[in-house]
Amino acid sequence: MGYINWIRERVGHEKIFLNFSGVCITDDKGNILLQRRGDKNKWGFPGGALELGESAEECAIREAKEETGLDIKIDYLIGVYTKYFDDYPNGDQAQPITFLFKGIVTGGSLKTDQKETLELKYFNPNQFPSLVNKQHEDFLNDVIGDKRGVYR
């Protein structure tokens, strides 16, 4: 059982802090990989919740593999994003605290599981689809601005 399931059994749908890691992966043309998410059927950066005992970096690497099929290494921290709120289709509420990293592909190949990941696609930074929430919109703006060490 994952941490989110464990904590939700105790607090129900109440608003809680949840810690996430996300990753920005680009192709050789500078296009950005997005995931069409199974929970909201909207586009966002790949990533997910930290498990107990896991570092933010380890989480980003694990989630990239689980959600995209790609093996990555972390190049640098883009930023830490904290002042956001999100509601999930099942009624859960959270203040997501997300560490966003720049990842470099070291192997693997793109694949979807049709559960967490419905589709994967590289997008030109100037022709992006609507993103899942304000936090992901801020990720995009900071990536396009080549920012590092962001804290919001």
Automatic annotation (TrEMBL):
Single annotated GO MF: hydrolase activity
Origin superkingdom: Bacteria
Q: Which InterPro entries match?
A: Nudix_hydrolase, NUDIX_hydrolase-like_dom_sf, NUDIX_hydrolase_CS, NUDIX_hydrolase_dom
Q: Which UniProt keywords apply?
A: Hydrolase
Q: Any idea where the Nudix hydrolase domain is?
A: 15-145
Cofactor (UniProt): Mg(2+)
Give a yes or no for keyword DNA-binding in this entry. no
Q: Belongs to which family?
A: Belongs to the Nudix hydrolase family.
Q: PANTHER family under this entry?
A: 8-OXO-DGTP DIPHOSPHATASE-RELATED, GDP-MANNOSE MANNOSYL HYDROLASE
Write the protein's name: ADP-ribose pyrophosphatase YjhB, NUDIX family
Q: Which organism is it from?
A: Evansella caseinilytica
**Origin organism lineage:** Bacteria, Bacillati, Bacillota, Bacilli, Bacillales
